[in-house]
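User: Hey, my collaborator sent me this sequence without any context and asked if I could get a structure. I don't really work with proteins. Can you help?
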Amino acid sequence: MALNRNMLTAYPLHMSGILRSLALGLTLIGATSALLLFSDLRSRVKPTVDLPAESTATHAPAKKMRIAILQHGSIKNLDDGRDGALAGLAEQGWREGENLEIQRYNAEGDMAVAQTIAKAMVGGQYDLMLTITTTSLQAVANANKSTKLPHIFGLVTDPYSAGVGINRENHLDHPAHLAGYGTMQPVELAFKTARRMNPALAKVGVVWNAAETNSEAQVKLARKVCAELNIELLESTVENSAGVGEAAAALVARGVDAIWAGGDVTVITAMETVISAARKGRIPVFSVVPSNIKRGMLFDVGADYFEVGRITGELAGEFLNGRSLASVSIDNRMPETFCINVQAAAGLRDKWTVPDDLIAKAASYIDAQGVEHSKPAPKSTVTAPKSATGVPPVSAPARVPRLAIVQHNTQPIFDAGTQGMLDGLAEAGYRDGSTLAVRKFNPLGDSNLANAIAVEVAQGGYDLILTATTPSLQTVANANRSRHTPHLFALVADPSATGVGVSATDPLGHPSHLSGYGTRLPVISAFRIAREINPSLKTVGVLWNSSEVNSEVQLRDARQVCTELGIQLVEVNVDSTNAVSEAAAVLLSRNVEAVFIPGDITVLGAVNNVLQLARRAGIPVFSLFPSAQPKGELFNVGADYHEVGRQTGLLAAEVLRGVPVASIPVKNIVPERLALNEQVRSQLRDAAHWNFPAALNARAGLYVDASGKLENRTPPASAAAPSAPVAPAARATAPPPLLKIAFAYLSSEPGSDACIRGVLDGLRELGYEENKNLQIRSAHAQGEIANIIPLLQNFDHSDVDIIIPLSTPVIQTACTHVKNK
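Assistant: No problem. I've predicted the 3D structure and written it out in structure-token form, which is a compact way to encode the shape of the chain:
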């Protein structure tokens, strides 16, 4: 991969990382070493918790110790456990960089990799090895049988059945070099909670991997509990995460009333597919692995994994301070936490109710409108140490959310979109450097660098990721597939064609952590404008890169409209920006009358070269990207990318305030803008054939006159001016009579909420005040089309005066099913 100064500025590369990349091409032994280094690279993430500045230990240890940490995969619960372990170590006086050297490893869900890493850990001369999850415990314990290096484990469901020599009856009977704590999830409580929410619950399905002993232990317990509760447990086993979705769908087809998810790492890694299958069957999913409620789970009851990790780290610190591992009783530690999603209970096939006492008990819950509420967990933070004077240190300020913005390349239109995101966030009160910490990434179009950035962003512990352009969406979504960091995208031509799981027909058909705005550029409008300017236009050439999904989408539209208009579309494909000039020369040699430039990042990288060649030939160019300073196209028509970015920034602020990404529908927004260039028109070879009609001229927001002077106009005159508010003097002196209205909408999202606020503001201007002469009801269909009809019928037979449907599907349904209002 070629590196230049700009790339290095956009994304700092370290020499060790370059050497690691080169090592991948060496011999088999070298490749194995590179595998270990790559695993280490991916897991080398700083803890996301603030560790105490001082130790609570009486005497700070003097020797610098070396420990290795192995976690089996990249999922939030395991990350929380790892961070908790670091906090526990710090409580005992052991902090990384001061008296502790930590080597992190991550098997990324691959048992073969875990075993290879385990051998490297045993041979690494560490003072202590710390493992997270049952599979990591087993891999290191087996590799360490003869060496017997100190080994502490945590986040293990049932250590007694792990096959590492721990006695279930006598918890002090275990290898002298091995200790830790079990965390058997509250399986019985989970099923009893489900039965309480649905007394008719009769069949529950479970997907699990029989190779995971922790999962086997939980399923055995589930069988026992289900037998006591007279619930039929239907099981489906899988060998890897790829088969989880199909197994869950098979359970739904067998008629289960709900799906239960245990602490199975194989299944947790693919939890999205389980929830998706259940959603299609209109049944809930519940688990013993908090917290999955943001992903669509009905409820989770289980361990606070940060606290489990903290207890484990505390034990590790005690060992480093001199405690014998042989003295540790390997007991079950279950710091319980409960999370519930009230919104997920709506629209289900059967009746599921959520008792108030469960909401009161929940550490976090999502209400019926989709808003998340969290309560501070008393044990989820490190206890602040006392200073030498006995006075507690000043409390740290409230944590500032961390945001990553990834933009694939540097172009004015993309820069405008990214700046719009920041402007929208600032408008909503989130400003970089004060109330928000923003880090921007740009691989400058380099695919290798883009993939490396995507991995870093996915593993960076950000509160939210924003991506601009299709390639950035794809690379980050793939890297973030198992971590599920909230992710919003923008500046994407067709989200459903990107392969990241966005439905082409269902606005809420997307991964629960991923949503955003598509901007399907107005290709059809562009060709119709070209024909309007030149009614005799017959041949148009286009340059595009077939490997760009967004370009392929636009070419399909271009072919369609050219067929309708009787225009021949001459296509030339390019595979790199360096090849654009040569391809443009080839295109112009084919006697095209105009050149169309789609939203192709490869071509846009050399657009000036295309414009220069076309100008010499006297041929007009038109494109989809109006800019504040037109570069030389005859006209452009497209989205105001700054406005697209601004709306994305406003949406991002809603997510930072707690709106679940799962509740946000994917929309296509194209705030259209037209730019005309009279100077270019007058210099064309066939200028007499190209003329701007008066109606078209009136629509232009940007206009360059014959002398080259740019006029930045107001919005088109054809746009309807907003009606003036009713003057107070025009109102009746007496308040209007009582009005009862009902809002019906598909799902709770910022657009619907803003619309409702606008209606209420208008009514207020007319003298209507809530709880005086205005009664308001509102309900939404939880994102399910099937729920719209009963929702509207309920309003239709009530005493409301007016039903106000919001969004196209609700309006369409209202036209056929509302009879009385």
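In plain terms: The first strand starts at residue 65 and ends at 71. You can pass these tokens on to your collaborator as they are.
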